[in-house]
């Protein structure tokens, strides 16, 4: 369920998804890399997974492709009975506490800068 996309300097297509994290698809939402040339033509792979109930939006790469910026919207959304939580998620009793993971903090949307351990271009 593609929602928005970008292309990096190596001509790879990066697709952000929304709507996969429901029980009907069994898939996750996140950022998918799609190689657009070579032997892996049109092969996709999950690069970054968002928390339960969230969608990823606005992927953007730094000009050197060493940092990917992504926005995680409405983590834990939907009020669904997520596996592991055992009951509907709500503000007073959220199914997740992303990105802080602290008992006194609710889940919050966030913008992240994703880099490669040790540096270098993302997706290589």
Automatic annotation (TrEMBL):
Q: Which SUPFAM superfamilies match?
A: Calcium-dependent phosphotriesterase (SSF63829)
**Domain of life, per lineage:** Bacteria
Q: Which InterPro entries match?
A: PhoX
Per its UniProt record, what Pfam families does this chain match? PhoX
Q: What is this protein called?
A: Uncharacterized protein DUF839
Supply the source organism for this entry.
Rhizobium azibense
């Amino acid at each position: 369920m593609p929602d928005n996309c970008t292309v990096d300097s190596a001509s790879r297509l990066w697709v952000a998804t929304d709507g996969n994290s429901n029980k009907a698809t069994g898939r996750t939402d996140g950022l998918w890399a799609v190689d657009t040339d070579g032997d892996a033509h049109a092969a996709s792979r999950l690069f970054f997974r968002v928390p339960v109930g969230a969608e990823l939006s606005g992927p953007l790469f730094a000009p050197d492709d060493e940092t990917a910026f992504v926005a995680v919207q409405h983590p834990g959304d939907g009020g669904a009975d997520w596996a592991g939580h055992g009951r509907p998620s709500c503000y007073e009793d959220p199914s997740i506490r992303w990105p802080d993971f602290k008992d006194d903090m609710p889940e919050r949307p966030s913008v992240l800068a994703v880099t490669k351990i040790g540096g270098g271009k993302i997706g290589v």
